Amino acid sequence: MRDCLSRCLRAMDPSLEVHTYSSLRAWQDAGLLTEEPPLVMAFRSARKTADEEMQRDIAALAKSENPPPIVVVSDAEDFESILGALEMGARGYIPTSVSLEVAFGALGLVKAGGVFVPASSLVQQRPAAAQAPVRPEAQDMPFTTRQAAVVNALRQGKANKIIAYELNMCESTVKVHVRNIMKKLKARNRTEVAYKISTLYSHAQL
User: Fold this and answer.
1) Do the beta carbons of residue 89 and residue 64 sit within 8 Å?
2) 15: Cβ–Cβ under 8 A, 6 or more apart, which residues?
3) Residue 127 pLDDT > 60, yes or no?
4) In whole angstroms, how large is the CA radius of gyration of the chain?
5) Of all helices (H) and strands (E), which one includes residue 104?
6) Angle formed at CA 105 by CA 112 and CA 116, multiple of 5 degrees
7) Between the ranges 32-41, 99-108, 196-205, where is the mean pLDDT highest?
8) What are the φ/ψ torsions at residue 123 (nearest 5 degrees)?
9) For residue 83, is pLDDT > 70?
10) With contact defined as beta carbons under 8 Å apart, do 72 and 64 qualify?
11) Residue 65: what pLDDT?
């Protein structure tokens, strides 16, 4: 992969001077440090032990007296991996799924002093809580799974017979669930159940 990537980079810009090493430590041991630090691309392995070593090397390199701009190349595209690389001191994160043109542009951006993070990866992998406003469902409240289903039906004003048909229950079973729901909510009737549930929903969305 190192050889392939280095040849591609040279092909895109013949003036580039590209050196490949098996690790950051091997590069440092080669003693090719210059006054203007070169752009460093580090491949982050999926293996845990190798990944931990890479994290330590990147963090140490970022804290050095004259740190080079570091770009992490990785198969991982999850939000935690990207954020972790930036927290370690990397200035760019390139998933192996992006095109060579995008990767080359990202390197140029980082070399110029910018920071590159793939927007598509962040959008796809960000926590679900960040994607939409929090809206509690009945199953998030103190009900069993079946009670939660009945609660959702009650909120829609459905009769016991309809609820029983849609949830594949006996009507008598629905009545038992409704009574238990009323006890949990301290409601006196179905209307009060629907009102209290709707109130809980509206308060949680504010």
Assistant:
1) no
2) none
3) no
4) 28
5) helix 100-111
6) 65
7) 99-108
8) -65, -45
9) yes
10) no
11) 80
Residues 6 or more apart from 107 whose CB is under 8 A from it? 9, 39, 41, 71, 92, 94
Give the pLDDT mean for 165-193.
85
Q: Report if pTM > 0.70.
A: no
Determine the 3-state secondary structure of 111 from DSSP: helix
Query: Given the structure tokens 């091997």, which residue do they identify?
Result: 26
In degrees and rounded to multiples of 5, residue 33 shows phi and psi of -75, 140
One-letter identity of residue 89? G
Q: What is the DSSP string of 139-153?
A: GGSS--HHHHHHHHH
Q: From CA 114, how far away is CA 91, in angstroms rounded?
A: 7
Task: Give the Cα separation of 165 and 158 in Å (integer).
Answer: 11
Direct distance between the N- and C-terminal alpha carbons of the chain, in angstroms, rounded to an integer: 51
Largest CA distance in the chain: 82
Structure tokens at 109: 């951006």
Cα separation, 125 vs 15, in Å, equals 36
Closest CA to 184 of 149, 137, 151: 151
